[in-house]
Structures are given as structure tokens and as C-alpha cells.
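Propose amino acids for all 484 sites.
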């Protein structure tokens, strides 16, 4: 057994309901933002653009029952296949399975008094299957799947009323799953809120002059909601652990010019640390206040908001880690490349995947040290991997050495960070089974150890096949990270 990774370390994988589940209109569920995002097969995959979601698009999509060009409506039909799929995860030895619950399934109208019993029945079966198979469920309560009803009735998180509705939703989950679920993430990658407002906050960009202010206001409501539900989770069951989570955009100075170092510091503050600072240090940091002043952003807060945030910090830090970036005082000559959720400046020292996302394993060790040093709290790697094109061979095998190599290098760096002294709770690689890409809605951008026979248009048998990486990850887990 590895001397580096402790015996209680949790190995596993992570999916989101809105990319895997399908069954978008079954058993009472109402529609969500990902189900109005149309797949554009003409788009340039090397450019990260946030889809501009308008009210008209939402109305048109609602009237259209198509599931070919709205791939997240069908996902990989995990709603019906989860038992067999989870058995495959358990075969790899997963000790933890991260998954997201759909708000629009549990409260289809957003503001009714009682939850939808069919939704709870589905999640009961899913959670119980995980437990029977020896995997702890780790639950994301909101993963890029804003219910449309909450956008239409309230304008999303711009309305403070969303806090009460979200708290009611969480209360149902904490009470219903008491003793069965220990780890909770209130919001997936909360730093994406100000980058992808429709997807995360349900705040639609209609060219408002104060759109950025609206996003930060919505984010304030999410910060407050996260604090309230952290308290609630602890009150309902002191064994509950509630994490804060960001997509960490590790950044390096373009050169050793002091101007570049300052640019790097500022990027790190407003793209990464701000969100973790509020949720873990319990206060709005000085640099955010000056950013707001510079941008003319004025947040509405009630008297006890800051006290609630201060008194209820998160229990651990969750990160997703895909690509790093660079910062420069003068960025006029830097070249852009695609990255998770937004484009970044190209680092000439790093290779990239087919979508232009740069691959930087050492950055993971750097990031883990950076975060642990600042917060002195355990870190959970909740997402890490890369999209690749795969080919299913005639004998139903998939040879994916590129995926094994990517993960091997990153896990190695995680282990070096553990040797540096960082406390890492676990590692849930992103997308153990192929599913629909969040950003591009492609099926062919694959992450899985398990191949799903479905193309970008939904054609295929949907059968599952084990890739070479399946057997590799099984050995990694068996050896507790020693055999990579
Ligand atoms: C993360 C999201 O930011 O990136 C996931 O939490 C997403 O939902 C992942 O799938 C990878 O992005 P993509 O666009 O390649 O699916």
C-alpha cells in the first residue's frame, strides 16, 4: 500500500445529473437551462464562448420537443441505467461517487410546499444503490441546472426570494438523506456564477447596463444561501460536511516582469480566491471591495447577511482542475486558447487537448499547496480530467493511452502535494462514464473510463464498453495510488 495516500482517502468519479440523466420531462420534472442549450455542430471547438441565452431562446426551446439538437434532454439515459452504470463504477473500486440532484425534479414549480415524491424515490434508489455497492454518495445540490420556472417567476438569483426556496430544497434533502449522505456541495464551481450567469444564476443578459452588478448581487445571494445551508446541514446532522467549490484557474505571470506578477495576483484574486475567501474566511476581502468600487458595483445586503457568512464557513475546499492560464500587465500580444468556461492566454510550455485546453499536471501540485497554505483546510479534488476523441474498435475495446497518461501525470502531482504536506480528502475524476459535454453539448468530447455508444446526434446502441483506462484506474484504486 502507498505510503503517500492515507487509508481513508476517497477514490472515485463525478457526474452531473444534467449531462447524464436525460428523462428531462419524466415523473414531474420541469425544464432547466441545459435543456435549452442547442448543440451547434458548426461551431469552432477551439474557441470557448459562453452561449448567449436569451428569453426568446428559452421560449422557443420550450415549444420544441427535439432531443437531437438538445442533447442534454437525453443525456446517456442514466435515469434508467444508473444501476448497471453504478455497478461498473463499483467494479473499478470507487469509494465515492459524486452526483448532482436536480432542483427541478424535486420542486418542479420551484415554490410548492412539498417535494415531488417521484423525485425522492428516484434519488432514494440511486443513493441506496451507491451505498449497497460500497460507494459514498457525495452530492452537488446545484450543478449548472437552473430551473426555468425560477427564471420566469423570479429572474433567477437576482431575487432574494431564491434564498428561501433553495434553503427549503436543501432542508428536504438533508432531512430525507440524513445518515446516508455526508458530503455536500451547495453550488458547483461557484466562481462560474459571474462568468456564466444564465447557467449558474439564471440571470439573463439582456444588455442591462448593470449586468455585472446583477451577477455579483446574485452571487451574494448564493454566498448567503451557502452559509445558511451549511448551518442547517450541521444542525440536522453534525456528521454532515459541506464544501465550498471553485473551478481553480491557476495562473502564472507571463514573464518575471513585476507588472506581470501584479496582473497574476489580481487574476488569482478575482477569478479564484474571492469566492473561497468569502466562504471560508467569512468576509468580503479588501481587493473585492476595491474591484466593486472601480466598477461602480453596489451590493444590497441586509443587516445580518455578513454575520451569517462569518459564522458558517465551509468545512472543506473543493476544486475542479482542468487547465491553467497566464496573466500579463500588457496582454495585447498574447494568443488566446480555449479553456474551461472561458478562454485563456496560451502558455508556450504546455501541450493542449483537441479543444485547446492546456494540460498542466504540475499546476495541480502548485494549486493544492497554494490553497492549503491559505485556508489550512482539507482539499477535495472534485473534478479533473480532459476531453478526448475515442474510437470503439471492432472487438468493442477502446485503447485510450492518452487518457491514462493525463490522469497518471495529474495523480502523481497530487501525490507529490500530499508529500508536501497538503491534506487531500479524495479524488473524483470528472466523467467516469461518457456523457454530454457541458460547454459544447457534444457526445464526442469524451471523459469516461466507460464508453457509451452514442454519437453527437443521439445515434447508437447506448451500450456501455470498458476502455483500457477502466482497468488502469481499477489498479490505481486497488493499490491506493501506488501503481500509476
Ligand atoms: C466543469 C463542469 O466545469 O467542466 C462540468 O463542472 C463539465 O459540468 C466539465 O462537464 C468539463 O467541461 P466540458 O465542457 O468539457 O463538459
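Proposal:
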Amino acid at each position: 500500500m502507498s505510503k503517500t495516500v492515507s487509508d481513508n482517502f476517497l477514490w472515485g468519479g463525478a457526474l452531473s445529473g444534467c449531462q447524464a440523466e436525460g428523462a428531462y420531462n419524466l415523473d414531474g420534472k420541469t425544464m432547466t437551462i441545459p435543456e435549452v442549450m442547442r448543440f451547434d455542430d458548426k461551431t469552432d471547438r477551439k474557441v470557448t464562448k459562453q452561449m448567449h441565452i436569451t428569453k426568446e431562446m428559452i421560449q422557443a426551446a420550450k415549444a420544441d420537443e427535439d432531443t437531437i439538437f438538445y442533447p442534454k434532454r437525453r443525456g446517456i439515459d442514466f435515469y434508467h441505467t444508473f444501476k448497471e452504470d453504478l455497478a461498473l463504477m463499483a467494479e473499478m473500486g470507487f469509494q465515492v461517487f459524486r452526483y448532482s440532484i436536480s432542483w427541478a425534479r424535486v420542486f418542479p414549480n420551484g415554490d410548492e410546499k412539498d417535494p415531488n415524491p417521484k423525485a425522492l424515490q428516484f434519488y432514494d434508489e440511486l443513493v441506496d444503490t451507491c451505498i449497497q455497492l460500497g460507494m459514498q454518495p457525495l452530492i452537488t445540490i446545484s450543478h449548472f441546472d437552473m430551473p426555468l420556472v425560477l427564471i420566469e417567476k423570479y429572474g433567477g438569483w437576482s431575487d432574494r426570494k431564491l434564498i428561501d426556496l433553495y434553503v427549503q430544497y436543501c432542508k428536504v434533502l438533508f432531512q430525507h438523506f440524513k445518515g446516508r449522505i455526508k458530503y455536500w456541495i451547495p453550488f458547483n464551481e461557484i466562481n462560474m456564477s459571474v462568468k456564466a450567469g444564465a447557467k449558474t444564476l439564471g440571470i439573463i443578459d439582456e444588455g442591462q447596463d448593470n449586468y455585472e452588478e446583477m451577477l455579483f448581487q446574485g452571487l451574494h445571494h448564493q454566498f448567503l444561501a451557502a452559509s445558511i445551508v451549511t448551518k442547517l446541514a450541521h444542525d440536522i446532522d453534525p456528521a454532515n460536511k459541506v464544501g465550498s467549490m471553485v473551478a481553480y484557474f491557476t495562473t502564472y505571470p507571463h514573464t518575471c516582469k513585476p507588472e506581470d506578477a501584479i496582473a497574476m495576483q489580481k487574476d488569482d484574486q478575482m477569478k479564484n480566491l474571492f469566492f473561497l475567501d468569502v466562504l471560508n474566511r467569512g468576509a468580503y476581502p479588501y481587493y473585492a471591495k476595491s474591484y466593486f468600487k472601480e466598477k461602480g458595483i453596489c451590493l444590497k445586503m441586509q443587516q445580518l447577511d455578513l454575520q451569517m457568512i462569518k459564522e458558517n464557513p465551509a468545512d472543506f475546499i473543493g476544486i475542479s482542475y482542468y487547465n491553467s492560464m497566464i496573466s500579463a500587465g500588457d496582454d495585447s500580444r498574447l494568443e488566446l486558447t480555449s479553456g474551461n468556461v472561458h478562454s485563456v492566454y496560451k502558455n508556450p510550455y504546455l501541450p493542449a487537448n483537441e479543444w485547446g485546453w492546456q494540460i498542466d499536471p504540475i499546476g495541480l501540485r502548485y494549486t493544492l499547496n497554494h490553497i492549503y497554505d491559505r485556508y489550512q483546510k482539507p482539499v477535495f479534488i472534485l473534478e479533473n480530467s480532459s476531453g478526448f476523441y475515442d474510437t470503439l474498435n471492432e472487438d468493442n475495446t477502446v485503447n485510450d493511452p492518452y487518457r491514462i497518461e493525463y490522469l497518471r501525470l495529474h495523480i502523481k502531482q497530487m501525490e507529490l502535494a500530499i508529500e508536501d504536506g497538503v491534506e487531500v480528502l479524495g479524488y473524483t475524476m470528472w466523467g467516469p462514464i461518457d456523457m454530454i459535454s457541458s460547454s459544447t453539448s457534444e457526445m464526442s468530447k469524451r471523459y469516461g473510463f466507460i464508453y457509451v455508444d452514442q454519437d453527437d446526434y443521439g445515434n447508437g446502441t447506448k451500450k456501455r464498453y470498458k476502455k483500457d483506462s477502466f482497468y488502469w484506474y481499477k489498479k490505481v484504486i486497488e493499490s491506493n495510488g501506488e501503481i500509476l
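The domain at 10-478 is CATH 3.20.20.80 (TIM Barrel). The radius of gyration is 21 Å.
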